[in-house]
From TrEMBL:
Residues 19-266 form the Polyketide synthase-like methyltransferase domain. This is Cyclopropane fatty-acyl-phospholipid synthase. SUPFAM superfamilies: S-adenosyl-L-methionine-dependent methyltransferases (SSF53335). The keyword Repeat does not apply. It comes from Actinokineospora diospyrosa. It comes from the Bacteria.
Amino acid sequence: MSEQVIDQVGEYYDDIGELVELVGGNLHVGYWESDEDRAPFLEAMQRLTFEVGARLGLERGQHLLDVGCGVGEPAVRLAQRYAVAITGITVSHWQVAESARRVIAAGLRGRVITRYADAADQPFPDASFDAALAFDSLPSAQDKSRWLREVHRVLRPGGRFVFTEYPRTAELTDGERAILAANTIHTPPATLAESTALAETAGFDVVAAEDWSERVRRTYDEFFAALTAQGPALAEEYGAERIAMFTTGITTMFSLCRAKIGYHVLTCVKPA
Ligand SMILES: C[S@@+](CC[C@H](N)C(=O)[O-])C[C@H]1O[C@@H](n2cnc3c(N)ncnc32)[C@H](O)[C@@H]1O
């Protein structure tokens, strides 16, 4: 990606900064089995981490690459559950520092490492990792093919790669595309077939392509409820102006997502 785009994405996440506490450090959606599933928001987000993680086929001692790792919350959970080592990359300097703090707090120093690196131009030798994950990060890519080719390169033959996508579930106006782009979401695919074809062109076999749009849609209402409940405390801690700006931006973005953005999960293998 161009330096300018990386800087924009990095600044976007640097600006969110400590507000990740609102969602327990999970910069991804939640997962509910059905309308009857009453799991609280935080639990639903952690559940998604494990649903996605289960598709990686991780074995003890393996090395996982987490492309677009946020503040390392998913990496910490997966390292604890599967006893693997994880290297995460992000283009937010704030996230690198916060991730290190969380890793130490979780007692995982040395097992989970986060570094500043661009997914489209990764600083790793070929076949460095046993598995790879791009959890709600590929939507930020301007050139998705390039990200996928880079993941393919750094993954060992036979290794698994799971990525998630934010597809459009209805036509988007130019204005709506601009709102998504301002929130680092570029070119939402229309179908699972579209993302499958991209992954196959990068050299992967796609072994499962799942549409979880209805399982995650409650995320947005849950987020608004959390923001309403915690907004005054956040304003007290981080300043009323910052919280008002954040609330305005995220309300516009998440109202759009609730109406027109779904969720896809693709499980891939690099052929041996
Ligand atoms: C929506 S957050 C998801 C974070 C994390 N996977 C999670 O589930 O909590 C998107 C992440 O992708 C990262 N990202 C976006 N563009 C990137 C790039 N070019 N290279 C590396 N990371 C990138 C962002 O810095 C951010 O950490």
